[in-house]
């Protein structure tokens, strides 16, 4: 039995410098955007990637040309426009989707829904047709709805595998690790806080009680820390003052998750990351928990573990919003023409 406190695989730095090699073909859909460009740079830098397929509706040839000059082994190809989307996905084993519009001040993740729902449905449809066996890692917000959308589109094509469709919530874990380390004077690379639930506001549930190393906070500080982790995206949106949302930290988190998926596909054992997936762990159809990853995606859902009363209340408080977001995503696909 795997301990629930298994440290999610490796830090990004170690993934970048690892000597193990793989011949994975990875696609980034939305590669020209604020997340897509730094994410593509991190993937280009990794020996785990042999082919990097970059797709967007504009500017991809330039991004691909720029990245292709970097002295690492990944071969980079750029594809632009819907007529090149199918070609971008052929033969891909992992697809990462940061596509969509970013959040601006005053916008909720829900405000993004209409635009990003259509984008994600289009991209999921292309994945279902061109690389139905690929691991699909969705960054596009609102993740609480875009994963149900991706899943329902894959079902329509008869190729849905719940072990291979992931909502990338890793930024919540990365932030929790950084904030706890800052408060306790620890090395953030050695801190691991599982974050469960969803990927927006009160659905983000950091399990500080399960942090390794063990940390404790007074009730008021714990409440403030939890709130900061839940609202960290808004913190960045406000700080950028209209110039976008979290892009660099999201690219880091997206790369970390992708490297974990690739490591597990390569046969590395004990690879654990939290992810928002189809789940039987709660009354919600989709829920983020720590996942043991393997060659074929999710090997085992490690569940919620032992919660404190404070954390149990956070889970209870998140349920209505999560269920509503899930239904919204499912209804969107059901009503698609």
Automatic annotation (TrEMBL):
Its EC number is 1.1.1.37. It holds the Pfam family Ldh_1_C. NAD(+) binds at residues 30-36, 56, 116, 139-141, 250. Residues 169-333 form the Lactate/malate dehydrogenase C-terminal domain. Substrate binds at residues 103, 109, 141, 175. GO terms for cellular component: mitochondrion. Keywords: NAD, Oxidoreductase, Tricarboxylic acid cycle. It catalyses: (S)-malate + NAD(+) = oxaloacetate + NADH + H(+). The keyword NAD applies. One of its GO terms (molecular function) is L-malate dehydrogenase (NAD+) activity. Homodimer. This is Malate dehydrogenase.
